[in-house]
Amino acid sequence: MSERILLGLLAALVVGGAAASTDIDWWENAALYQIYPRSFQDSDGDGVGDLKGITQRLSYLKEIGITATWLSPIFKSPMSDFGYDISDFKEVDEIFGTMADFDAMMAEAKALGLKIILDFVPNHSSDECEWFQKSVNREDGYDDFYVWHDGKLNAETGEREPPSNWVSVFGGSQWTWHETRQQYFLHQFQVKQPDLNFSNPMVREHMLDVLGFWLDRGVDGFRIDAVPHIYEHRNADGSYRDEPLSGWNSDPNSYDYLDHIYTKDQPETVELMYEWRDYLLKYQQEHGGPTRVLLAEAYSPVETLAAYFGNGTRLGTQLPMNFQLMYLSGYSTAREVVGSIDYWMQTMWTQHQTANWVVGNHDTQRVANRMGAHKVDLLNVIVNALPGASVTYYGEEIGMSNVETECTEISCDDRDGERTPMQWAPVSNAGFSTGPSTWLPVSPDFERFNVQTERGVARSSLQVFKGLQQLKQSSAFLSFKKKNGFSYEAITEQVLQIVRTNNLNEEYRILVNMGNGIEIIDGLADKVFEYILVTAYSLHRPGEMIDLSKRLLLMPYEAIVLRWLA
């Protein structure tokens, strides 16, 4: 029997054996997928991805088992930071299409049973935003819509200086002098991204209005960008304190030069997350439908992320994004993987019984580059075998790697390598565009790593990924909130074992060999298991049986999924 037929049987068994769990909301076990709109599918031949292109490819997301897709910004923007500098929060940028295109995309997603999550960028706007222009001119209601300050006079030189020593994420001062207004404005990121002043209730009202606008158009939630930066600490007299030195970076223009105790993770930011969740809960009560979800992008300590989720009486973001597994390298052992898992689970699972696992994003090198192409499947297996939601960056399911890029008129960003066009087929421009060129170069290995080719290869990364999504709907995988529903451990220095069970009649054991040597494991269980899913490095085939009371051999970089049924 072919592996492809067995994969189909696996899907049937999973669907047939799954016991619906009434205490699990859709986002808790979701397969989330990030689309970088410029690079997913070009529908008009201009070399840039767009909404019509995304609509054309939504059926692919359904095929591979995705629950919801998160779109990086599609809003009107000068594109100084590729959409994270928004000039109109309620309009689609013409690069991506029109509002009619957006509505058509939403209709197709609903028809397919897919959920759409939008990027929400509240910390700042573009300096070309109407709000900023009104604030520059001190128009009524907009005078303190952004963070402005007169600065301070140097006692020795008499010259005006920025209000504090704060350093931008992109380097240099966070404060820039504006000649028209004759004050400094704050920008934690680019100069062209002035920070909004969330101490102003009118700003918060405007942002709630933005959320409501897109909820009315049918979106299922929001990924909140740059959460830790939304508030800054201001003294009672309106001044700002200097931040202390970090002690481990000697460049005063580097973000890491300072310890950001006044510009990150302020208490008011936590309260804002609760305010936004309250708004979504009220919207759901009034309009019905599935739970609307909030994802929080926050590179913060897990204790802070726990506060963003909730405090016991108030609810916040359902999915404070967990980046721990993105810090693994090609040298990481199974014990180090367990350490990364523990960092999250010992706080977030203990306090809130929630988990999510992020594979990559548009700001981080791809797994093939961080860990090696031979470990792409291993990380995909781990994040989908663990309890909770998985977050996959487009192309990781087929093993895409970073591409060497050069500066062009369109882009000159050191993150371009992980933002190159999706590889659909072994044809011109990898099937991404019919145009003569693409906004970033297509990977030279697209003829090997692409959707069409991998659909026809039984143990390709794509087929492994699809099989994992089918398993997430099994009774054992849906029992993760029940007592003893899962466990994980490093059974050797290099072998990770994850167990998923419904404690009744179904159990899965997922074994991952992170090392480059053969591993021999004795006496894992007194049961006979069936090989359900195997990666390319395995010597076994789906359908084979193994007695786990006896010896199990794992090849280097092999991952397997075994199943026991009563």
UniProtKB/TrEMBL annotation:
<dbReference type="InterPro" id="IPR006047">
    <property type="entry name" value="GH13_cat_dom"/>
</dbReference>
<feature type="domain" description="Glycosyl hydrolase family 13 catalytic">
    <location>
        <begin position="34"/>
        <end position="419"/>
    </location>
</feature>
<dbReference type="InterPro" id="IPR045857">
    <property type="entry name" value="O16G_dom_2"/>
</dbReference>
<dbReference type="InterPro" id="IPR017853">
    <property type="entry name" value="GH"/>
</dbReference>
<feature type="signal peptide">
    <location>
        <begin position="1"/>
        <end position="20"/>
    </location>
</feature>
<dbReference type="Pfam" id="PF00128">
    <property type="entry name" value="Alpha-amylase"/>
</dbReference>
<keyword id="KW-0732">Signal</keyword>
<protein>
    <recommendedName>
        <fullName>alpha-glucosidase</fullName>
        <ecNumber>3.2.1.20</ecNumber>
    </recommendedName>
</protein>
